[in-house]
Amino acid sequence: MALSRFRSAAAALLAGALILGIPMLPAQAAVADPTPADPAPAAPAASPISEVALQPYLPGEQTWPSSFAPSFALMIRIETEYAQPGARFSLALPEHLIAVADPGTVTDEAGETIADYRVDADGRTVRFAFAPGVAAKKDFRARIALFANLDDVGAAGGSFTGEARSGSSVFPLSLSYGAMSWTMGNISSTWVPGPNGEGARLRVRGAVAGHAADAAEGGQWIGARGADSWPGLLRPVPGTTRLFAFDELPSTSGALGDPAAAVPASAYSVAAEGQAPGTVTMGVTVPSPRDGFYVIEQLFSLDSPGPSIFEIPGETLPKGARSIYATGSQVDTSSVLAHAQSGGASNGSSSLAYFVASGADGSAAAAKPSLGAVRTVETDSSPSRAVARVDLAITNSGNTPLHATAVERVTADRAAVSIDAATADRGTVRVVGGAVEWSGDLQPGQRARIAYTVTAKHAGGSAGEIRISGTTEGETPSGQEADAEVADDTVPVPPAPTDGTGTDPTRTPPATGTRVDPTELAATGSEPLSAAPWVIALLFAGAACGTLGFSRAARGSRPGSAG
Length: 563
What we know:
There is one protein chain. This protein is mainly beta and 563 residues long. The protein is 9% helix and 46% strand. It is built from 3 helices and 33 strands. Strands 13, 16, 17, 19, 20 and 21 form a 6-stranded antiparallel β-sheet that branches. Strands 25, 28, 29, 31, 32 and 33 form a 6-stranded antiparallel β-sheet that branches. Strands 1, 2, 4, 8 and 22 form a 5-stranded antiparallel β-sheet that branches. Helix 1 packs antiparallel against helix 3. The longest helix has 26 residues, at 532-557. The model is unreliable at 1-36 and 508-563 (pLDDT under 50).
């Protein structure tokens, strides 16, 4: 019987708990820990480079660019509304295209640096970085012309096609070049970057006929040097001399340096010889030459381009990329005996090599971020209570977009406050404790309005007050900051009237020995005490007492029970 009564009481308690909404602890279920999937590869970032193109320095001139002089201007345009100081981006060039340029800068009309650029040591990648001063700039425009050339062209002329890439952008490139046949003594020259991508070097590949008969006169001598008939000064780079042998000359310039055709270093010797006026000849001696063709390869540093021979007309190129310079190299061959008898003089074929400095120009406008904020407060007061309806208007009064944030803080003295749900006509807003937080993006001239209501109940004693203070800040896409000052607002909370004894007649005093009404707002906080635990405890106790009473009544009604 006791067990039956216990079950009845437990059932009643369970029913009461369900009716009152008392939460029941759920049983824990075993959940497998899922293996995280591999993150998807990040998409390439957008690049501020808007255009890449190849163009001849002298349109209509058939000899430049040509298979003999395959160089031209690599035009790069940068366009972006805003830039982050120090932000870096790059341009990867297609195969066989080499850029040759000293590190340079892009300046605006005021002469202030907005970006810098440099070329990697292999000439295949151009790297850029925005200068620190771009934080105060907007509307960037730049054009950069880099001296560039092909390292593999056909003797019969032709066209080049390829793709340059920067971030997610792809730029198709194409350019035609004229024909200049390679003959005996002719030279194929390609400009390449110097060490660390600085300076320029001329890679000379001079072709001469091989003469097996020269073995009877000590072998065949082949020499390469900078020509003194052109203004630029070339100096041979020690340790860069190589020799190649062919039965027939290749049809492309790149094949002139085919590693498979390289003559073993043990089959020839290299010696540097002084040459007037002040130049040096790198001479190769082949003791056992063969008939066919030899190609001597030699790198020369451009010690000085000399004076500019003329300037490219028009304004299709930046000012710093219009001056044309010229230098040259010379290749000669003879038997070793004949070379010794001539006193080391070289009278072979010389060739002209053009060189153009790189340059850039740019423009940018001043960025003038400005932010304004105005708070208006409407109040509605009654005895022991005050309501403040707050409207905050935030305006982007500058010429750049802003990501703006605002924090409105509400505090009280001798009053308990609460903040109703806040609203905004743009951006996002939320109530966090005793503050209203908003954030959003504002274009120039755009305004955001945030509204919220503060309710305060007097806590006793003299009059209380609500204080509203805030901060409003903004940041441009370039990282420049702006803020707006808003004066604090104070709203009084009237005291409650008394009945002459100092007692508030609108308040019901607690009974002696009983607890304080748990639903009353705290005097120093913004949230009321939670009444749920007290109410649930009382209801739970009531349900238990009712269950026991029901059990006793049932026992008394059974046959045989006491009356």
